[in-house]
Amino acid sequence: MLEQVLLNSVIRGSEIASLAIGVTILFSLLRFANFAHGEFALLGAYFTYFFVSVLEINLWIAAVLGAVLGGAVALSSDVALFSRLRSSPGIVLLIASLGLSIFLRAVVAGIWGVEGHNYSDELETIYRIGEAVITHTQVIIVIVSFTAMALFYLLLNHTQLGRAMRAMSDNMALAKARGINIEVTIRWIWFIVGSYAALGGTLIAMDTQLWPEMGVHIILVVFAATILGGIGNVYGAVIGSFLIAFLENASLAIDWAFLFAPFGVEGSVYIPTGYKFAVSFAVLIIVMLLFPKGIMKGSKGD
Amino acid sequence: MYRLGKLAGAAVVAMAIIWSGAASVSAEDAVEVGVLLPLSGANASAGAKALHGVDAALAEVNAFGGVLGGRELKLIVEDTESKPQAGIEAVRKLVDVNDVPLVLGAISSAVTIPTGKYTVSKGKNQITIAATSEAQREIGDGLFTMLATNSVLGRGLAEFVAEDATPQRVALFYMNDPFGVGMARATGDALKAQNIEIAADLAYEPAKTDYRAELQRLAQSNPDAIVAVSFGETARVIFKQAYELGLMDKVRGKWYQPYIANPAGRCIPEVCEGIKGIDIAAEPGPRYDSVLAKIAESAGEDVQLDWFTSVGYDVVWVAALAINLANSTDPSKIRVAIPKAMEIYRGITKSDFSVDADGVQVSQRFGRRIYEDGALVDYLVE
Amino acid sequence: MIELALFFSVLIGIYAIMALALNLQYGYAGLLNFGLVAFFAIGAYASALLSLSGVPVLIAMAIAAVIAAIVGALIAIPTMKLSVHYWAIVTISIAELIRVISTNEEWLTGGTFGLGDIPQPLAALVPLESYPLFFAGFTLVLVAACYLLSSALVHSPYGRVLKVIREDEDFGQSLGKDVASFKLRTMVVGAAMVGLAGALYAHFTTYITPQAFEPIVTFIIWAAVILGGKGNLLGSLLGATVIVLLYNSTRFIGDYVELSAVTLANIRLALIGLLIMLTVLLRPNGILPERKQVF
User: Fold this and answer.
1) Number of cross-chain residue pairs from A and B with Cβ atoms under 8 Å apart
2) pLDDT in tens, A75-117
3) In this complex, is the C-beta atom of C215 within 8 Å of any C-beta atom belonging to chain B?
4) Among A209, A297, B196, C18, which is least packed, fewest CB within 10 Å?
5) What is the spatial distance between Cα A205 and Cα A211, in angstroms, rounded to a whole number?
6) H runs (alpha helix) in chain B
7) Quick one: B241 and B302 in the same domain?
């Protein structure tokens, strides 16, 4: 029981984190929450599908190609749209990304149809860990997610790009004065977070299905995870993702009778499943009231 | 038998009268009918399936000479975006601007009820395609359904579960929308009437990617049988995750679905093996297979067809027939003609589409089905 | 055709009231309220439930606005110390929480089935055939009232303080102004207006379900405010009009172009997305930019 709750949380957390990292990096640099991030994931999943179904390429190579194309889409969206709004407030970029998200979703539905698809109809290999189970794809999701987190750590701390990025998110004017090429750095960031979102989209689609609606139904949870961890803090976003995933799973699994027993309530007390998606938001509100700066220190909270 | 024979005779005569002599249709003064379908958003795939049937029937109607002695039947299809508000905006356009006497649709009860209310309030008519909410009875004169309401289906499902599994405790697992809640409640009430205990009452929000926590709770309740109300893309994810968590193995042969053809449509065979359910196109009319095969040919193999398609097909023929019987595009005359058209029409989804005084389908024969070796087959309770 | 025009004018009116409220909160006080739809839902449910239980519609609407204002205050008071982006996500969370509650608590809200047969204002006094015209007029009166109220507020000393606070909170503080109290008051006024819009919506459609209160409503109003122009009240009226017309005029493409309905639906949505992006690109400060004011 508990093992399964933990495993489910790790899987779900990895999926949320694959988007939350990108959202948080974009936030720390450009000061807006990118609505279209879910659609970058969606496009990545469908690009992979194109390579698999039309060109009949091996799924993993296809996933990498899909990620590269996803990064290219993110980069183009910066060139065509976001770079032209550098001096605008974040909210203007957010509305632009809302438009982009509606546009990209319609394009995907137009090209690939509104029905759900799977990469293959083969059964998943299922592994048992004690009482709990996890599928082959889910293991890979977790591994990819943790590897990516390690790579982001290296990128941020041990590369010139990462140093430039951190300098920019701390103080844009100072970074410029130090001779950092702001525009080039931003373009790189778009490409990297776009590819990572695309890869995340492919992984989520492998675990569930390809469907034009998949991005739009996850983005609010991603935003919540991003903020919960502390705005602009990559590690915070990761922790926020896993925390939300754990809360969603654990809150439904726990028998809350012990809280109510003193009041004479008998039997089990479970949270109705219809409230599952409210749990993470309720916790977010409580956490914000207790820790007004997020659970990790945000780079900038203003 | 007498009634059937009489009806069949009437149908043949009516068809002969209506389409006699009509050769080529004239697009000049086409007769316009509105169609409301979700073509984007969470129910888009159901909308697309229905649209294949709608288009096929439209082509047939016009090939047969159209309506009202050679006028083209023209359908104006509007997207409800799977949302009530967009549905209301769409029906306003159809009723106020296009001024259609008749609207067909929508798919979900949540969109059908407000749009139906508006259509009827303007003296126009609406035939709902897939909505099964009881509330449709209250909408008033001018609203007709192509399916029976939840209580009928719920009773049928409950009887099936009771006879087949002889359970003591049944868990309800349903999507948290008017269809899911209505269906689960109707089935649950019918089960309780047979002294069967409801082990768990679990709602879930459709269109998400993760149902493992909800499914854990379902497993925890340790039921003898599960009644699950799920649909389309959401159902695919639920089946897959239920299988992966070992739940499908645990309740093999004891998982029951209403309208099973839709959720089982694209299942991985091993995952859905042994899922049972009831289906409405279980006693289809004689042309069911040939019509669907023809649609499949033109739609491409990528498209999954099920009873959404056949009901979409039937509703357009009912509309054409009603307009011809009314011999007019006057909404009030069409309103009188629709029940007659439904009585004489021999559908592909089912033979008898007769409606009661509220405009709701009288008969709904349900076939009991089981998913075996990758296909749905008829099932007999032993 | 006239009926459709009246329908859209009411819809535009409802959106306009929300856009005015949001512009007051964002354009003047700098509040990033992403939970706008929460107050819309509260106003709609409160007014619907009250009028269904026999309270006259106009009184129900007024009470609904007051309830929304109270909820606004209750939300604002404990959260005012949060910095803007944290506050923004808290407001989204509250809105989602309210939507999920309205979906699940059937005893109160009718649950996922919603509330139907909501009475309409002064329905007994107005002849049926002229009722759409009456309702459009009624909406216009409410929009005008909200516009005049907002306008009076922003041109008062209170409004000028708000702008100072928006530009520099510390400076506002140093002037000896109680920033939190100003923000709270703006939040309450805005919540009341959005609550009123929600009530209007409930009595207009006469049928509400939780699906009408999804987060997208908030973002659509944000788009209206940004497209119209931050800090410009006329801009908000214009932005609401543009958004409603953008969403609905695109429906008429199908009457002129021969395309399959599915393709058309996707083209329509792609076009809406594209036009939002284009407007933002061409007029990043809105169609009617904020006028520079000398204090």
Assistant:
1) 108
2) 999 999 999 999 999 999 999 999 999 999 999 999 999 989 9
3) no
4) A297
5) 8
6) 2-19, 44-63, 84-92, 109-121, 150-165, 178-193, 212-220, 232-244, 247-250, 269-272, 288-299, 307-326, 331-344
7) no
- Res A61: pLDDT: 96
Res B266 pLDDT > 50: yes
pLDDT, residue B7, reads 46
Chain C contacts of B183, Cβ < 8 Å? none
Q: Which residues of B touch C214 (CB under 8 A)?
A: 83
Question: How many domains in chain C?
Answer: 1
Q: pLDDT at position B23, please? A: 46
Q: Structural domain of residue A21, as residue ranges?
A: 2-220
In chain A, whose CA is at the least distance from the CA of C264? Answer: A110
| Complex-level ipTM | 0.93
Whether residue B198 is found in the same domain as residue B120: no
Instruction: Indicate the number of domains in chain A.
Output: 1
Q: Are strands B375-378 and B367-372 parallel, antiparallel or unpaired?
A: antiparallel
Residue B211 within any structural domain of the chain:
yes
Mean pLDDT of B156-164: 95
Q: How far apart are the first and last CA of chain A?
A: 41
In terms of domains, do B113 and B245 share one? no
In a domain, C291, yes or no: no
Count of CB atoms situated within 10 Å of the CB of C288 = 20
Rounded Cα–Cα distance for residues A120 and B72 (Å): 44
CA dist B68 → B329, C46, C118, C251 (Å)? 9, 50, 40, 28
Establish whether the linkage from the previous residue to B106 is cis, with ω within 30° of 0. yes
In a domain, C144, yes or no: yes
Q: Is residue A241 one of the residues assigned to a domain?
A: no
List the one residue out of C243, C181, C248, C251 whose CA is nearest residue C218.
C243
Interface check for C58 against chain A (CB to CB < 8 A): the answer is no
* Total domain count, chain B: 2
Give residue C294's pLDDT: 44
**Calpha distance A234→A294 (Å, rounded):** 12
Report CB contact under 8 Å: C113, B133: yes
Q: How confident is the model at residue A301 (pLDDT cuts 50, 70, 90)?
A: very low
- Tell me the per-residue pLDDT of A199-211, one tens digit each, with 9 for 90 and over: 999 999 999 999 9
Share of residues in chain A with pLDDT > 70 (%):
98
Output DSSP code: residue C208. Answer: B
Residue B121, Cβ density class (10 Å: 0-12 exposed, 13-18 middle, ≥19 buried): middle
Alpha helices by DSSP H, chain A: 2-30, 37-53, 59-80, 90-112, 136-158, 160-170, 172-177, 182-207, 219-228, 234-253, 257-260, 276-290
CATH of the domain at B274: 3.40.50.2300
> How many alpha carbons lie under 13 Å from residue B295 in its C-beta half-sphere?
30
Q: What is the pLDDT of residues A37-80, one digit of tens each?
A: 999 999 999 999 999 999 999 999 999 999 999 999 999 999 99
Q: Which domain holds residue B192?
A: 151-283+367-378
Residue ranges in chain C modelled with pLDDT below 50: 294-295
* A257 touches B at CB < 8 Å: no
**Quick check: C284 contacting A, CB < 8 Å?**
yes
Q: Which domain holds residue C153?
A: 7-214
Asked whether C13 and C241 are in contact (CB, 8 A), the reply is no
The answer to whether C259 contacts chain A (CB < 8 Å) is no
Asked if A111 reaches chain B (Cβ–Cβ under 8 Å), the answer is: no
Asked whether the beta carbons of residue B39 and residue C265 sit closer than 8 angstroms, the reply is yes
Nearest to A115 among B48, B212, B213 (CB): B48
Same domain, B30 and B52: yes
Whether A253 is in a domain gets the answer no
Q: B45 and A114 in contact by Cβ < 8 A?
A: yes
Q: Indicate whether A257 belongs to any domain.
A: no
Amino acid sitting at position A179: G
- Two structure tokens written together for A172: 């844009």
